[in-house]
Amino acid sequence: MASATRLYVSSYAPPNATFGAVTTLEFEPGLGSGALKTTSENHECGSAPTWLDDTFNNGFIYSLNNVFIYCVDEGFTTPNASLNTLKKGTDGSLKSVAKLDIIQGPVSTQFYNENKAMAVAHYGGSAISTYTISEDGSTFTKLQNFTFVAKGPRPEQDASHVHEAIIDPTGAYLLFPDLGADLVRVYCIDPATSLLAPHDPIQEPLGSGPRHATFWEKNGTTYLSVIHELGNIIITYKVDYASSTDEGLAFTKVDEVSTYGDTRLPADADGSAAEIKLSPDGNFIVASNRNVTLFDVENPDPNNSTKIPSDTLATFALGDDGTLDFVQLAPSGGSFPRFFQMNADGTILAAANQLTNDLSLWARDVETGKLGDRIAYTKIIGPPNYILWDEE
Length: 392
Description:
Elements: E1 5-11, E2 21-27, E3 36-42, E4 49-53, E5 68-73, E6 81-88, E7 94-102, E8 106-112, E9 117-122, E10 127-133, E11 140-147, E12 166-167, E13 173-178, E14 183-189, E15 196-203, E16 210-218, E17 221-228, E18 233-241, E19 249-258, E20 272-278, E21 284-290, E22 295-297, E23 308-310, E24 312-318, E25 324-331, E26 337-342, E27 348-353, E28 358-364, E29 371-379, E30 384-390
Antiparallel strand pairs: 1-2, 1-30, 2-3, 4-5, 5-6, 6-7, 8-9, 9-10, 10-11, 12-13, 13-14, 14-15, 16-17, 17-18, 18-19, 20-21, 21-24, 22-23, 24-25, 26-27, 27-28, 28-29
């Protein structure tokens, strides 16, 4: 019988605890609400594990005997943050093999230049940092640091807050949404050295707080959709490539939609948009919304009839002209879905609800893009913030 699919979930330290966790879960489809089982927990990524990355395993130096997950610790309780290399055991357990102190507040990583280097976005440290990686994939060497002082008009924008690192489809550019500065910072990559050089950023609406973004393609045209945490909007740009990376990229706005689609919110709603993902088939975008609980979902405890207030996940179909067409607003299963991730074939979406400390798995129709029934649920130790599917 085939082994169960694994999920790795990072989570902040719970109250009165010293360390956060990276939890290994096994999921066996068809078993209903009991399908998720915790098999191990790793506590070697500090107090605030916040992002997991296994991209290197799929790169040009892949080895079955050397499979790593990389975890960044935001460094809430220490002088420095850290970049941690965790080795996967055959049973899915993790063990630390290397740690590098880095600038405070890392919240996202991105391998680039054929996995020869990694870029890190620092929310708390108002910075971007880059590192080269050893041939065996275990250790990193510091390459570049970029620090910023720009800030925006809202209280949440008291400083530059770089929130994500994103590679473009050609592999020639890295983009970094800066929530504090209302910019998407753009850099080109030198393939010979992995060094980054800045290009003109995208100026986002003042006070909108760009958080994350995703590239997508339609009929040979490349688009970039940026989700804005403070404005609760998604802005889509047509991307034009110059003849050389020295000239950078050109971005033309083609669409702007609410992260709630056509759903009207209460007058006192104070939403906080979070994640944006392209579906595996490239036909839909899904976004998560926090702090406005528009649904009540069934309690997964069969002995408890009290319904659970739920934040939302919005689905949009991708139009031929770069516009987003609203499809559905569905529950995330709990409060504050900071992150979600679809499995490889797009039939399941896993949502990490940060304030209710839980993980919900939802069935997903790949033809319509709509979410259906909840097929699995589990509590997580500490507030969860990232999900990594392992479907080997």
